[in-house]
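Hi,

I'm pasting everything inline rather than attaching a file, because the server keeps stripping attachments. The sequence lines come first, and each chain or strand is labelled.
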Amino acid sequence: MSGNTLRGIFVPTLTPVDDNLAIDVPRWAELSLHLLETGAHGLCPFGTTSEANSFSVEEREDALVQLIEGGIDPAVLMPGTGCCALSDSVRLTAHAVKQGCGGVLFLPPFYYKGVSDEGLYRSVAETIDRVGDDRLRMYLYHIPPQAVIGWSLDLIERLITDFPETVVGIKDSSGDWDNQNGLLTRFPGFGIFTGSELFLRKNLQGGGAGSINAVANLISPFERKLFDNWQSPEADEWQAQINQLRPTYTGMAPIPAIKQLMAHYHNDPAWLRLRPPLVPLSESDAATLLFKVKPLTVMANASW
Amino acid sequence: MSGNTLRGIFVPTLTPVDDNLAIDVPRWAELSLHLLETGAHGLCPFGTTSEANSFSVEEREDALVQLIEGGIDPAVLMPGTGCCALSDSVRLTAHAVKQGCGGVLFLPPFYYKGVSDEGLYRSVAETIDRVGDDRLRMYLYHIPPQAVIGWSLDLIERLITDFPETVVGIKDSSGDWDNQNGLLTRFPGFGIFTGSELFLRKNLQGGGAGSINAVANLISPFERKLFDNWQSPEADEWQAQINQLRPTYTGMAPIPAIKQLMAHYHNDPAWLRLRPPLVPLSESDAATLLFKVKPLTVMANASW
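And the predicted assembly:
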């Protein structure tokens, strides 16, 4: 592997939708610029938090083009491009590379369960072959809580061995520290992003590349401070403050909860909209969330 | 609900691919015509067995148009049209209706797990509203082994109540007789297709509409005989013969196994190809399968 991967706090940006449930590109671009101006190193449009799979390939391509035309440097973008259909994955991946994106976040084809490592290997190999562009930098997206299937350590090793310049990193959203620690131990130099804000400091201590986590939509400046100063004596306290956020929405649907907080802090109810199958929080959940989040220091350090 | 639903043996047709992994439409059309000529009442192109989600929306639309142009009556077609993205589901569903398809088989949006009934309700309601065509006949596709999420009995009742002329049936691929029996008991007159060949007779005894099962690709003439004569004294024996097929590929990936048998009986190795993430059986699994299947009466009654 090249050892030359993206690093930092990458935000899996929320996707605002208009009242027809289409992507609200101006509001999306505004958030994206805001996040980059206030500390994020980069963005992962069309991750899980972004409701990526609730939008068509065309909707994703069109929005990405408009985002870049709106002034975002594509070098700091790592859009999600892995789909169930090989043809869709190839199309979105090729499109992202052509736009100059610094990387792509690659979900395994997630419809069939119990698929073999050989089948997942072929999905990646066919995609790389068909895209046929040396500029492609692929970050595997490991998220068993949603995809159910995932990238095993043996499969990752095979992919790194066969595509050392292309398969350069992973986002681990397993929520399982043992898995992430296994990655850090076995693949030093691989671009290992934690998908959990809870593991931000530990991942950096272990040599990881950074984090791609949902709450970075709200607190990326604070996460950036921890990223830049993870060896500081205060870093443990900062991590503890970050960790206070998760329990405010435990038992609630996380993406609606984060959109609720976005609507609240940006004073913009347009953020409350979601595409089915996701739906906004109930009024009572929303009230509970806002009550619990109010006293948190970490929220006071965010940048709205 | 209308009570006027499709009935019979519907085959979730295998999708052959060429050596570039594109849909091999001539071979697909040939199989489709063959199945209808030898007893199948209808076809469900782009179900799970068809590797539907491994193909793009455009690939699915183009192939469906060519199938109909090739001489298949669209009234006997129930293509799969439910996708993760609302926009894709709307597009494929509207396309199928415009082509004159007798129904559509509707997967829930399957990326997010733990979604609410309200979110799934809105997915269906938005699709029906946006398609905006009274000719739409929707069959819910319940397949928790792959989709993980599914259609609860309470949600089905709400959908039938609100869309009585549109939501007219279900394919139950839970593999759980209790669930299917619950459907038969609670929703008499609803078009209930079993997704398992093992429940074919019991489903008919309970008032179900028929079956959509993978092995019908191989033995639909035999299943048709059972469908037409399920009250016959011999029907128990026929069901027992059908049931012998499943254990021949237990522990193997089912779709590759059925493609292996298709290649064998049609003497056509082109059927062995699959799109990643699915891969052909190992040589040893293939040999085991062909050895076990050889003595089965039910295979001798198939039509090649």
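The first strand of chain A starts at residue 8 and ends at 11.

If the labels don't parse on your end, tell me and I'll reformat.
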